[in-house]
Amino acid sequence: MKEINLIGAPSDYGASKQGARMGPNGLRVAGIKNSLETLGLSVKDLGDVSGPFTDWQPVKNGYRHLSEISEWCQSLSKQVHESLSQNGFPLIMGGDHSLAIGSIAGVHHYCQMVDKDLHVVWIDAHADYNTATSSLSGNLHGMPVAVLTGEGPSDLTDLGDKTPLLNQYDITQVGIRSVDKNEKSRLTESRLKVCDMGYIDQQGMAKAIKEFIEPLKQKNTHIHVSFDVDAMDDTLVPGTGTPEPGGLTYRDARQL
Questions:
Q1: For residue 127, what are the contacts with CB-CB under 8 A and spacing of at least 6?
Q2: Does residue 161 sit in helix, strand or coil?
């Protein structure tokens, strides 16, 4: 069994509100290591990756904190790749969701080395498919899916070993229920696979898993899960900076 490597990424520069940087230590204080070990798993805490800490800045050229987020993502990419290369199972504790650009870049590099396809299961209330022109805020936590599929600033789109890192059909989105107007048009025209909350409410999580997730279980496919806590119903995650009603229940999430 692979050793789980806890990796903290305490950055919230991509978010609309400060506070997500406290996530890694919050999870540690809550006992995440002990909880996993209770399940019979081997766990090693690798500490936090490093990155810049600066004063909160306004949007510049369509993006907020682009250089800071780029540095955080580079650092995270290296740590994730190292964990996988040493037969570890990296469990990244954020931090806001712009950090997924870094974690997935690291996973992609590993997949290239071992000749595996990469598929990302993106569990989130939001599609995160904005660009600088469609975003209402300039916050990069709303753009990682676009960046990973080649749309965005070169500081981030060129972070991995190829551009784009992923094709649109290499991402399955689950739990989506809050999409900006311009983003919705982009999403409709894309090849992203979307299992939104409407489908889950109507068909149930078991059918959603069978239709969207089980086909990914191919011998040569590495599945990376990127989980944003706001995918959960807002009553269950009062700490998120982007609460959305009508999300996943505890049972939905556990089954998924």
A1: 145, 173, 176, 179, 183, 187, 192, 194
A2: coil
Residues 103, 159 contacting (CB under 8 angstroms): no
**Strand duo 88-94 + 171-176: pairing:** unpaired
Q: Which of 154, 146, 141, 149 is nearest to 165 (CA)?
A: 149
User: Residue 48: CB partners within 8 Å, gap ≥ 6?
Assistant: 7, 8, 9, 10, 24
pLDDT truncated to tens, each residue of the chain (256 aa)? 799 999 999 999 999 899 999 999 999 999 999 999 999 999 999 999 999 999 999 999 999 999 999 999 999 999 999 999 999 999 999 999 999 999 999 999 999 999 999 999 999 999 999 999 999 999 999 999 999 999 999 999 999 989 999 999 999 999 999 998 899 999 999 999 999 999 999 999 999 999 999 999 888 999 999 999 999 999 999 989 999 999 999 999 999 9
- 3-255 is classed in which CATH architecture? 3-Layer(aba) Sandwich (3.40)
Residue among 236, 127, 110, 237 at smallest CA distance from 181: 127
What is the C-alpha separation between 131 and 151, in angstroms, rounded?
Answer: 7
Pure H helices in the chain: 23-30, 32-38, 66-85, 100-114, 144-148, 154-157, 181-189, 197-203, 205-208, 250-255
Are the C-beta atoms of 227 and 253 separated by less than 8 Å?
no
